[in-house]
């Protein structure tokens, strides 16, 4: 399918090489099996993680410690190609690099960085990010998980988290908790006594992804477990901004995969003596899908350029996350309609992407929260409470 706006012509030679390398990996290692993984609700993360490390996409936007140190647009392009395979694949890379590695890289001690970042960049250690709780999703400031110092100077962590990607297979968790000093981040090895992470089952979305709860029952951590470089919600929210940037690029890949499937189907499926793509109603759907994809792609590229220039703001990332996820979901739903009954089978990627995007619409800030972020930006009035 032709890129109508020739957006990738604006990429550098290195960025196009990253695009082609990740796209080939997805074609070889993901697409042949991902429908089965989705149907069976499995994802071979332990096997794929070292391969993704060798590919260089784990923490690829960070510098040092075995990370590639690439620019934001390169990271975005990689996320786009990963999510063209499956949102679960891109979620793993986002969680590993932006939610688990980034806070250690940005706010951790030299010892924490040396212990975890090289292994995580290589895919030899898997990380997760503990912020969302059963009763506190959009309002993380109300979290109940807490950590208190005991007379020895150790921290004692208690509480729970929910909807945690990679939780049950992680080697390390970056956990945010209330303390007497405000919200603090902790680097928690998952083999610490009192830490448990049961997997969440019966999902109808992101099935090719590991999702877990986290429980902390008097988890004893040394003083060296705390991330010293940040206090308050600024810490976890900065991590979410990093992850949302990957999302607003990634969903362009999911949308593109749906449009490609719809175009291929509409030009080969014959009804009333001609391909359904020759009917005006089908062409109108395809045209609007292409417009939505192009607009999302341009938004992602512009925000990537702002990030590389060091001028991007959280509000702009909210704009991209809100607009691009909604556009991708609309494209997936239109593609599903073009495929008719075949659109609900895993013989085609559309229903898988459509179901996955229902989760992407919600995680890393719901549609409603990002709407209120933009509303406040426009009016100067906060409407969260």
TrEMBL record:
Q: What is this protein called?
A: Glutaryl-CoA dehydrogenase
- Would I find Hydrolase among this entry's keywords? no
Single Gene Ontology BP annotation: fatty acid beta-oxidation using acyl-CoA dehydrogenase
The UniProt record lists the keyword Ribosomal protein:
no
Organism name: Sinosporangium album
Q: Which residues form the Acyl-CoA dehydrogenase/oxidase N-terminal domain?
A: 12-124
- In what residue span(s) does the Acyl-CoA oxidase/dehydrogenase middle domain sit? 128-219
Keywords assigned by UniProt?
FAD, Flavoprotein, Oxidoreductase, Transit peptide
* PANTHER family from the UniProt entry: GLUTARYL-COA DEHYDROGENASE, MITOCHONDRIAL
Per its UniProt record, the required cofactor names are: FAD
InterPro entries documented for this protein: Acyl-CoA_Oxase/DH_mid-dom, Acyl-CoA_Oxase/DH_mid-dom_sf, AcylCo_DH-like_C, AcylCo_DH/oxidase_C, AcylCoA_DH/ox_N, AcylCoA_DH/ox_N_sf, AcylCoA_DH/oxidase_NM_dom_sf, Glutaryl-CoA_DH_mitochondrial
Instruction: Please spell out the taxonomic lineage of the organism that makes this protein.
Output: Bacteria, Bacillati, Actinomycetota, Actinomycetes, Streptosporangiales
Ranges of residues in domain Acyl-CoA dehydrogenase/oxidase C-terminal = 232-378
User: What family does the database annotate?
Assistant: Belongs to the acyl-CoA dehydrogenase family.
GO MF annotation terms: fatty-acyl-CoA binding; flavin adenine dinucleotide binding; glutaryl-CoA dehydrogenase activity
